[in-house]
Amino acid sequence: MVASEQRQQPKQNQEEASIINRYVGTLVGESTSREFRLAVAHEEIREQDIIGVDAELRQPGNQSSTEKIRIWAKVQRIERLNPLFPSEAGHELAATRTNPFDTVLSLSREMVTAVCQVLGVEPLDGSGGGKLDQLRYPPQPASSAYRPDSSDIARVVVGELQERKNRALDVAWLANRREVDVNVDGHAIVSRHLAILAMTGAGKSWASRRVIEELAAKNYPIVIFDPHGDYTGLADLPELNGRVDRYYARLPIFEQSPETVITIIESLGWKLANTHISKFDDLFKSAFRFISGQDSGKSRRNLEWLSEYLGHSQLLEYRAEPNLYFFADFVQAVVKAARERAERQSEEAKRQRSARGKSKSVENQDGDDHLDQQEDALDKIIELSGYEDLQSIDKKTAGNLEGLPNNLRVAAKRIRQMEDISKRISKATSPLPNERSKLVQYGKISIVALSGYTSDFQATIYSLIASDIFSDRVQNNLKLPVLLVLEEAHNFIPGRANTNAEQNSIATTKQIAQEGRKFGVGLLLISQRPSRLDETTLAMCNSFVIMRMVNPADQNFVRKVIESLGEDEAKLLPDLDKGEAILSGQLINFPVLVKMKPPKSQGEREEKDAFVALEEAYRDNISTSDSRK
Amino acid sequence: MSQNNGQNRRFTEEGVREEIQRQPHIFTKLAENALTVAESLRDNYFKNTAKFVANLRQAVNQYETGKRPEPILEVKSVGDIEWSEVQGEVVTFIDGGLGQVQISSQIPILLRVGSYCVKTGERNISEREQFGYYPVILGDIEGGSKERKDFPDIVRITAELLGGLSALERTPNLGLLMFHGPLVYLMNAYAGHTPFTEKDIDLFLSHYAQDGDLAQRVKDEFLEEAKIEIYPKIAPERADEWTDRKLFEPLSWISFLYRRLVKEAQKRDPVPIIVGVVERGQLREFSEKILLERVFKGLRKNNKENYFNEIYGRTDLKSPKALLDRLAYTDGLLLSMLLSPGQCSEPWHINKYGGLGKGKITLPGESFVSDADWGCLRPSSPISFPKVLGCYVNVSETTEPVRVEVFSELGSKQLEEAARRTYLYARLLPGYGFPVGLDIVDKYAHIPNWMTDAYSKIIRYQLGVSLQRGEINDAEMRRILVQAIYMTKRDWLFRPQA
Ligand SMILES: Nc1ncnc2c1ncn2[C@@H]1O[C@H](COP(=O)(O)OP(=O)(O)OP(=O)(O)O)[C@@H](O)[C@H]1O
Ligand SMILES: [Mg+2]
Question: Which fold does the domain A169-242+435-614 belong to in CATH?
């Protein structure tokens, strides 16, 4: 070793000189192949800094051939200690209110030690292409650590990604070295799910918009479930012109299965009675047939009949749509018709009984004829809908069903209200396509606006769409892969389901999380309350963007679920700035602290200064009332 | 009234006993003593001690209140000092420590002297504090008698003294120089060590002198003085040989450095205070020569020669020495019961040089002994050690008094000012009762346990940085230090060379 040192003297000197310029500290104490400690000068280094230590690796058993390597490491934590300041003296100073500077106490001798985690090694000349190998032998004590060049850092942060540029998403800078771009692996994100977790206001939506914009630039199909209108601004980007479709969530209920409709109705707050549920199928199917004939003239005629039968003409004007209002009317008609029939039948029976008591009468016969000629409404409904099973609705069933139309109308009203709000907030003009796989298109982003709906309804809509898309992928009806973006994910996939709607959406999401990779359905989950998220789903995300987080429960949860997140990184979370994030998992070579690049698009409700907003609103108000005059 | 009562209780046997029981450091000391004194003294040791102390207190009080013409013990207050009085003062603390390595026995390997210089009130950290750290590897020293157990001590004494001297020389406005330990050791114990060689002295001086010229001057001055005055007196037979071989006989060299320190201080105006502070000293000289001497004198005057024999039920307690021998009292123990916190005892000249006289010495490279006589180094002559004045300061209820030592040549105010500052600095560590600056430099210089002690971290850190910056360029030194810093205890000393 001595000999080889001498041989390489001149070159070594050069290298040494440049290393001293970038010198950050000296390895002290015991080192292992996973961790070492650096004695550093005050404020020379920061947590999460990436540093290098050069070393020589000898081939085992071959003394002569050595390989020059660079050990990459990350500063995990910095320990600062003034061992010369006795705490007893501190108490004494406090008790006597003495300024330590006025005494002979020492205040200068702080020891700063950086604890560094080994990230891996590569050949010193950078020929490894950014791929880091496992270090198998501890670095030598008393080695110098230095600040690597930006280009070298960029290379290892990106890792093997640089050979697959088509996968790289340009989403961040290294937090401590802003000149270093951090690219992440888009493939890992779309195929193995990404979670963006942070407290409110930390920059989650900005981060996800950045990711989405980068994916959109690669034409990846994306469906966004947007409960707050955070993504409407995407449509305004020139480069996404014509490629962003916004939908408000109106559910054409007659295209749902009866069970789904039950779910929706129940999600709005009513549990349906068993008697309602047992006939629901028949009623729903017949109502559907009633209104959806092949020729529109026929369904119009059916509606005219219904309107006349129920005696309100509004039906034709306002409810000519196949929605819950119509369904309510239809059920009401069935109930009415079944009742009338039952009444008639009992009158008939009465009459027959009295006729048997007297004798046969022609008039009575005539009367019978007359009654027969008066049309049986239930038969008519069955005729118009072509659904024989309605015959089974007898008097008793009709009685049980009496409350259903009202229930349906209340639900219909709430849905209508929500739709209205949704339409207004999302500024979306088109309702969701019935064939939901249409949301998935090459180079397009579909935003499903969920604002205005209750969280249950949101969950319902989400799980209907997500499971449709997923099963279309499974059955290969849908050719394109897709990324599903779920904001406020804790509302859709909570750790504990309280409602049917939540149960469904958890089940759907879990399935996608588990099998999505096989079928090209990726998830991007965003949440401000990670500890309320379903643990198994979160654990199946392979990539994470974690931003500022102060709630201890959330911190613990995140620490527990995310294997790639170290303890020291977890400790940083409460101190992160807006937009700062720890990237960890498969999207990156090793966990790094970054500053996310801002997205190009604007959010719908970027936070404004409350007082500025007030003044603006006031001025607007004055000008509009002026113009009215 | 209760105050008055309390005051009076101080002077009663019961009062003293109660007090002692409240002060564990005194109590345990007495309990220990009780086991070592003769059996006949053991039974009432505690009670009798309390009685004796109560009587002493009464006597001290009688003098203070004019009821007694002759003092037993003059007590002064030093407790009224405030930090505001010493703002802007530049103070240097010096301490040496040994690095030991556990192999089969403790072998000292490395000696280090630390210095900590601080300017009170200075807000700018880099102006405020300077630390110095000087390692000496014992194996590098040719002189000194390595077979003697006190070999590391003689090296440490020399190194500390050089550390103090260089602190004084490089700090023109130094107000106080404080050593951890005696200002001067009991020198007779160190007589007879093989002289240091010039190479040794160069090694010492390489750390202490700022420039080579100064080092050369210090050496030349000593060798000149040794040739003309010292060696002819110490070794009349072989003085020429000593001079020719440029030997640095340790006591001559050390006394030269002390004198240099005193001379340098005398040049300054105001004269800096130079002080050594001793904790847990075993000295009983003050009790013997001052305190009990007066007590016996008084007893004789009042025809109560048998006072102690009566208390302790014996016949042989006839002199201070006999009393101390039999009862195992020390200065620290007696004064901890006589001084209150913030008080100091009266000054006395400490006999540091008793026994200095004829002895034997072996020169480097020789295997036989020759004669030497160190008598000439006793005060007061132009080539002798300086005289040392001392007193005890009680810092807190819970700790034994510390001994403060100064050079009497530096003026009459030195001791009191030294005692006041000792008290002030020690108040910051009431549980330890020792000046905080010395605690700081002790931690800084001391490596009690290489790998585990938290404080060794800072040393390793400092050495690491010095190595990195190329401040230590001797290749062998670097190698040893790197090993010393980084290897675990067992293998670093005898590690095969890489
Ligand atoms: N990368 C960034 N760089 C600079 N500022 C940012 C960045 N990310 C976010 N911010 C700032 O933080 C604000 C909040 O960001 P964002 O709306 O993304 O937070 P959020 O975590 O989604 O909050 P919420 O929980 O309310 O949805 C933004 O309006 C912006 O001012
Ligand atoms: Mg948001």
Answer: Rossmann fold (3.40.50)
For helices B331-338 and B24-36, angle between their N-to-C axes, nearest 10 degrees: 140
DSSP B380: S
User: Are B460 and B423 within one domain?
Assistant: no
Identify the domain containing residue B465 by its residue range: 450-486
Size of interface A-B (CB pairs under 8 A): 108
Of A8-17, A453-462, B83-92, least confident by mean pLDDT is A8-17
Dihedral angle, C-alpha A383, A388, A392, A393, nearest 10 °: -40
pLDDT per residue as tens digits for the range A510-567: 999 999 989 999 999 999 999 999 999 999 999 999 999 999 999 999 999 988 888 8
Nearest to A524 by CA among A211, A221, A259: A211
Q: Return the structure tokens found at A195.
A: 């979670």
Q: Is 0.80 surpassed by the pTM of this model?
A: no
Q: Are residues B195 and B90 in the same domain?
A: yes
What residues does ligand 1 touch, defined as CB less than 6 Å away? A 198, 200-206, 528, 578-579, 596, 598, 603, 606-607
Could you read off the pLDDT of B437-469 as tens digits, one per residue? 999 888 876 543 333 333 344 455 556 666 666
Structure tokens at A308: 């006349």
DSSP class of residue B290? I
Other beta carbons less than 10 A from residue A11's beta carbon? 9
- Portion 118-137 of B in contact with A at CB < 8 A: 118, 120-123, 125-126, 128-129, 131
Residue B96 falls inside a structural domain: yes
| Same-domain status, B208 and B103 | yes
Q: In this structure, what DSSP letter does residue B291 have?
A: I
Instruction: Quote the tokens at residue B110.
Output: 């490395």
DSSP state at residue B347 = P
Domain of residue B258, CATH code: 3.30.2170
| ipTM of predicted complex | 0.82
Residues B135 and B39 in one domain: no
Give 3-state DSSP helix, strand, coil % of chain B, rounded to 5.
Answer: 50, 15, 35
